[in-house]
Amino acid sequence: MKFSALATILASASAAYAHATVRAVFINGVDQGNGENTYIRSPPNNSPVKDLTSSDVACNVNNVAVSKTLEVAAGDVITFEWSHDARNDDIIDSSHKGPVMVYVAPTSSNGAGAVWTKLFQSVYDSQWATDTLIANKGHVSITVPDLEAGEYLFRPEIVALHESDTAYNVNSARGVQLYMECIQFKVTSSGSVALTDGIDFKTAYTYSDKGLVYNLYNEDPTTYVAPGGAVFSIAVAGQAGIGPVPAAGSNPSTSAAVPATSAAATTSAVAPATTEAAVTTSVAAPATTEAASTSRAALPTSKMTTVTVRSSSAAVPTVTSAVATPSAAPAQGNSGAAVAKYYQCGGASYTGPTNCAEGTTCVVQNPYYSQCL
């Protein structure tokens, strides 16, 4: 059976074990605690959004105001923490390769319309941004620009390209997988930057975008262009990006929200030097745009505030998936300990154990990834 046919059959067997959501936030290195359905507009599960025509592309399937809003000021560092089923787990399956981005919009918009401003993106630099994210325990940090005081939705996103060779509207078993959450913040500083000329996901994320319909296995990743356009010029230069959580109470950028001098960068952050030593594979730091910075006063070590509870409700769609019977993967040379169900057991360049736990079989998902099912 040809790989494309096999991949189509197996696509419906993808389950939540491979997926991810943002469950927590740090402000200047201070953990704000689990934010699910408190300060994060959390979906009912970690499944991706695949229908690019859906309004769910903005804030996922449960875009309803929640009871808390986190307070930040210009120059503060927000760290988003991605995870798989729970905090501090395996983040997202390594086969789910693609860019990592962060957007912001006024809360009053509820994410609808041309309101989204891209503050950060990391795409590919020797490895995909998702690989760097996994190596850094799911943490990606941005610096709050000099925004006008008010309430905002910050939207971290992963674009997973492992099934994006065929568009969802052509074959609903395949298609790009979008992972995102909208997180409620209040900017307390009196900045001068108003969010005006943003993008509308209805027109910016389409099936004609080569960054969303893309053959991960046959294309040169260095030529890939992420959807949503370039990082906007209001983004702060020298953001921490994907890397370790800053030390509690610190502000690694030491920047008074100085905008980047260019909006055309394909990546917008360099991971701190400590990142490279913690990663087993060599990772080249992404390029950055440079801008002058000014010193900023020390920041408080706790930044979490409860605001007025907003009562609202929304119907949560029921998600079902048909599971096809998979084919067994060919045996590989390295046996080792038994691999647990849903974990990797083979694929190109894979050197780990290949014997699956009792009752499971190593199954080919694509040329680069096989797993125990």
From TrEMBL:
Q: What does the entry list under GO cellular component?
A: extracellular region
Query: Which residue intervals define the domain CBM1 in the entry?
Result: 337-373
InterPro entries cross-referenced by the UniProt entry: AA9, AA9_LPMO, CBD, CBD_sf
Which Pfam families does the annotation name?
AA9, CBM_1
> What EC number is given for this enzyme?
1.14.99.56
* Catalysed reaction equations from the record: [(1->4)-beta-D-glucosyl]n+m + reduced acceptor + O2 = 4-dehydro-beta-D-glucosyl-[(1->4)-beta-D-glucosyl]n-1 + [(1->4)-beta-D-glucosyl]m + acceptor + H2O
Record's keyword terms, sorted? Carbohydrate metabolism, Cellulose degradation, Copper, Disulfide bond, Metal-binding, Monooxygenase, Oxidoreductase, Polysaccharide degradation, Secreted, Signal
Tell me where it resides.
Secreted
- Where would one find the signal peptide in this protein? 1-18
Single GO molecular function: cellulase activity
Query: Its principal location?
Result: secreted
Q: What does this protein do?
A: Lytic polysaccharide monooxygenase (LMPO) that depolymerizes crystalline and amorphous polysaccharides via the oxidation of scissile alpha- or beta-(1-4)-glycosidic bonds, yielding C1 and/or C4 oxidation products. Catalysis by LPMOs requires the reduction of the active-site copper from Cu(II) to Cu(I) by a reducing agent and H(2)O(2) or O(2) as a cosubstrate.
For this chain, the family text in UniProt reads: Belongs to the polysaccharide monooxygenase AA9 family.
Q: What is known of its domains?
A: Has a modular structure: an endo-beta-1,4-glucanase catalytic module at the N-terminus, a linker rich in serines and threonines, and a C-terminal carbohydrate-binding module (CBM).
What name does the UniProt record give this protein? Answer: AA9 family lytic polysaccharide monooxygenase
| Organism of derivation | Rhizoctonia solani
Its lineage reads:
Eukaryota, Fungi, Dikarya, Basidiomycota, Agaricomycotina
